[in-house]
Structures are given as structure tokens and as C-alpha cells.
Specification:
The chain is mainly α. The protein has 2 domains: about 70 residues, Diphtheria Toxin Repressor, domain 2; about 70 residues, Diphtheria Toxin Repressor, domain 2 (Orthogonal Bundle). It is built from 9 helices and no strands.
Length: about 170
């Protein structure tokens, strides 16, 4: 049955699958130690990944990545792929939160209606502190001073938004 399936799978398809496994191997090599341990990889694959980290020459590293791809053909790559996607999703979520904070900061510096919206969405926020930081950040921008208050505003927004937002009534 397996032989029939191999015959039906095109050479191009097999090659794409092997390249996908090599790409997955590259992502494994880029993980930090804690993440790599959490993957619970087979010993031979773990040793190959650690060896690839050690290599600096391009050709040696390329061959090692091919070897990692070959090792991965013998195991189910779905759990590894799922775990990487889970971690990547958390990274994307964090990035989205930072972008939202940056948008809030820009809106707050652009005008006062944004402050009212922010205070409505986050009623526990310290309005006086925000007003002071916004005023100082605007002054810094106009006078081309170092962005001390601009950065402080971002930090304060992050602190204020990590608390639970008001529930819509």
C-alpha cells in the first residue's frame, strides 16, 4: 500500500514536502534552549539541531539542515508544526497589542477626543497623569527634544491597558 502511494505521489510533491521539513528544521534551530527542551524531540534530532547551531560555515550548515530534514521524515512533524504555530501566534498577539498601544499614543497626541475615548474604554486610567504626559510629549515634539515623555506615555498606556477594560453595558 505504501509503495503504491509513493508511486502516485509526484517527484515534485516529494521534493516540496522535503523542503517544508527542512524549513521546519530551520525554525527549530532558531528556537531558544527552553523552547527546544519543551519540544521533546527525539535524541538524534535534538543532537542534530544543536550541531546546526554550532556550525558557522554556510555549506556545512546547509548540509546539516538537509540532515535535519531527513531525520524529520521518519517522525510525525505535525506536533512540532503545531507547537511552533502556537508560539508564533502568541508572538503575533503580543505584536498586535503593541501596535494598538502605538495607535492609542498617536491618537492621544493628535487631539483631545481620543483622550475621552480612552478614558471611556479604560475608566480606571489616571486622566491627570495622561494629560500631563500628552502635554509634555507634544512640547517635546514641537521643540525637537528627546522623546522622554513620548516613551513614558507608551509605558503608562501599556500599564493602564493591561488591567481589564470596562465591560460594555
Amino acid at each position: 500500500m505504501q509503495d503504491e502511494q509513493d508511486e502516485l505521489t509526484s517527484k515534485s510533491r516529494k521534493k516540496r514536502d522535503m523542503h517544508a521539513l527542512q524549513d521546519l528544521g530551520v525554525k527549530l534551530v532558531e528556537l531558544n534552549e527552553q523552547q527546544l527542551e519543551a519540544m521533546q524531540l527525539p535524541e538524534s534530532l535534538l543532537a542534530a539541531v544543536q550541531e546546526a547551531r554550532r556550525l558557522t560555515k554556510h555549506e556545512a550548515r546547509r548540509r546539516q539542515m538537509q540532515y535535519i530534514g531527513r531525520l524529520m521524515r521518519d517522525l510525525d512533524a505535525a506536533p512540532i508544526r503545531d507547537r511552533l504555530e502556537e508560539w508564533l501566534g502568541q508572538g503575533r498577539e503580543h505584536t498586535a497589542q503593541l501596535h494598538a498601544l502605538e495607535r492609542w499614543r498617536e491618537e492621544l497626541l493628535a487631539g483631545d477626543p481620543a483622550l475621552a475615548r480612552f478614558l471611556h474604554e479604560y475608566p480606571g486610567a489616571d486622566s491627570q497623569k495622561l494629560r500631563t504626559l500628552i502635554r509634555n510629549a507634544r512640547r517635546e515634539q514641537n521643540a525637537t527634544l528627546p522623546p522622554k515623555s513620548y516613551r513614558e506615555l507608551f509605558r503608562v498606556l501599556r500599564e493602564m491597558t493591561t488591567k481589564e477594560p470596562a465591560a460594555d453595558a
